[in-house]
Amino acid sequence: MASVTFKGNPVTLLGQEVKVGDKxxxxxxxxxxxxxxxxxNSKGSVRLVSVVPSLDTGVCDAQTRRFNEEATKLGNVKVxxxxxDLPFAQKRWCGAAGIENVQTLSDHRDLSFGEAYxxxxxxxxxLARAVFVIDSNDVVTYAEYVSEATNHPNYEAAIEAAKQAK
Length: 166
What we know:
Strand content: 25-35%
Radius of gyration: 14 Å
Structural class: alpha+beta
Helix content: 10-25%
Number of strands: 12
Order of helices and strands: EEEEEEHEHEHEEEEH
C-alpha cells in the first residue's frame, strides 16, 4: 500500500493500491443530483480522476480549480473530482467557485471509490489526495498517491499523462 500521512501523522489506507497497467476498478458514487455514477458511465473516454479530502480546504480547492482550468485544454478527457463531501456541498462549492469543466462526485455513502482505489483513510473517513488517469479501455495509465495529504499533486505529470492516454 501507498504510505500516506495527514498533517504529518501516518494514516491507514483501506483497499488495494492501484498501479499503472491495472484494470481500473469499478466504483459507485453520487453525482450532485444524487444519481449514481460508476466507471461505466464514462466508458470509452479518457478520465483524469482527481481525489481530494474535502473541497472546502485550501489545497483541495486549488487542485480542483487547476484541473477545471486545464480541462478545457484536454479535449475529450473527462475530469472527475471525488471526495466524501456531501453532493449538496459539492454543488454549492462548484456554484460558488464557478467550476463547470469538472464533474464532482461524492463517495460519502459507502467509500466505494475510496476502497476500490486504496485512498480511504480509516482514521478520518476521508479520501487521501491522489490522481489517476484511466484510458478509454479502462486501464490505469497514471497513478499518484500524494505522500502528505495536505500537499499538492504533480499537476504537470497528471496533465501530460491525460494528454498521452488514448
